[in-house]
Description:
This protein is α/β, with parallel strands linked by helices. It is 16% helix and 30% strand.
Amino acid sequence: SISVKDTEARNATAPYLYGLMFEDINHSGDGGLYAELIANRAFQGSTIVPGAVAGLEGNTIISSENPTIPFGPVLTGWAPIGNVRMSLDLLHPLSDALPTVMQVDIPANATGEVGFLNYGWWGMEVMPQQYTASFYALANAPRSNGNTTSFTLSLRSNITGETWASTTVSSKIPFVDYIQLNATIKNTATAPNSNNTFAITMDASQVAGQTFYFDLISLFPETFANRPNGLRKDLAQAFHDMKPRFLRFPGGNNLEGVSVQTRWKWWKTIGPLKDRPGRPADWNYYNTDGLGLLEYLYWTQDMQIEPVLGVYAGFSLDIYGQEGTSVPDDEMPKIVQEALDELEYCMGDVTTKYGALRAEHGHPEPFKIKFVEIGNEDWFSSTYPSRFRIMYDGLMAKYPDITYISTTYNENDGYRIDIPEGAMWDTHHYEEPRFFLEGFNFYDNWQSSTNNTNVGVLLGEFSFFQVDTPSGVVNFSNPEDTHVFYPRLLSAISEGVYALGGERNPNTVKMSSYAPSLQNFNWYNWTPNMIAFTANPKETVVSASYYQQQMFGTWYGTETLPVVNTKGDFNPLFWGASIDGKMNAVYLKVINANATAVPLEVHIDAAWSTVNATILTSPDVDISNSRDELTAIVPKPVVFPEGLRAGNGSFTWDVPGFSITVLQFNTN
Ligand code: AHR
């Protein structure tokens, strides 16, 4: 029997508790959330199998167990149409950032349609909408017919060759400097599958005997919030539907680089795409950085969520899991300056150097950054205490209102780091379900027991990674027998118990986010992930863990309410309650971690008129959504028994075995 008390003993809930962690891993960005449909658009590198020009069947699934050569320059992902010869060219660079272009020679005897196509990121979804295309072109010589060339841009089936939609763009093609051509393709067709291509073709009668150079060939569908160079609509919408309060970016390991040289350099991710070189990134594929700093900020703006900006803090990984390279202390001022400049780009007004640059890039209004994370997982390095201190002092001096987040804290082996009062600690947990279930109380006395007075926690990355083993030690080398591929109901339940433990400790646990968040089924380095997808939105697998996050984020009040339990302690039932002044609702979350139903008498102090509730449950705790069964486990409305009437002070309800329920009592 539990009683939700509407007493004076309310505490403000943590306003940013549920959020998102995002980095480019598993082709979550390029080939995923970043809506660009063209793979290897600037010939920088590609995880599409080399030689896959014969068609999509060549683009086999590649995972970390089956890596390929990811870094370019390469022509992979592209194929000729008609009688043309395609090659890579370095003599006619588009820009310093994009030095490799595609040379297309059309022989003098060519006839008919000539050009090239791109297979997309393991396919391309074609549905009724407007597509935005652009590319840069250069001719190798002045043209006899007045230089005008007509390009047909089309979406086609890769199976039948059928054209779904096309448009034509004509222009004089210069032979000194590149010209950028832009077009929109209005498509009304729905292709039966995503095995489609994007083609740029010419009429050989116009161009036979000519050579052209092409680069940065781009095609965007409509994007989330109609943002140019924006996010894939359906995946962004799934994130938005979670009601997240923050976004942590750009990593994760991917912030740090596999060398100091190849770290995520914010200033190389901004401005015109032709000036973004991209980088051979941490997760073994080339990042275009089309999803760059400003795009991340737009993401937070479009979802109205807080940015949690990870800044490079002088440590790169070298070889994952081993001590990497630390920037020496005497060179750290340069790293501090990088971060200060980055913050100025985000927050400076137009009179500042980098604020003016942001305005030039289209956003004069400063963003507000309230949270900055200093590095990522610096327990891999022994140099963090001094690097953290240098970064913290340097940033604090200019931005004292920001909350800074340390990536490790004073319990770590080998050294001591004292997190300053008012700052936060980012902890990561890839664990077994037992860890989360037993961790319900973990944060109850965390500040006092660890001597971290007035230090908050960002539960920045967590997930049920492997099933319970006798040792309890997580093995990241992914043994098939223990490693989880899809998050399952037990993931949601155990992660939910841990999250409830956080929710009832708002003075300590300020933020939490599942990680990793996205996985491209065609190429991934890591499982499990919250959402997995292909080019076809109908194949997206939204996991049980996603639903737990979504339910907790949606039904979340502004103040905690005390809950009194008159019969027994937590386990197998776990609960927490909050009240939302604005919505006039009381929220009660209840998790049953056991197989059998548990009768529960609920008493709500506040007068309520109606109750609605949503439940995620199955008798099979190992059930998961998968490519074969997208909706095996989804939240459903609870149908309460007869007799539960509006205004009842209390009621008894059998909480089903293996379930997560969120109840909303409407008090207005
Ligand atoms: O989420 C995957 C990785 O796990 C992150 O990049 C890193 O922070 C952690 O080790």
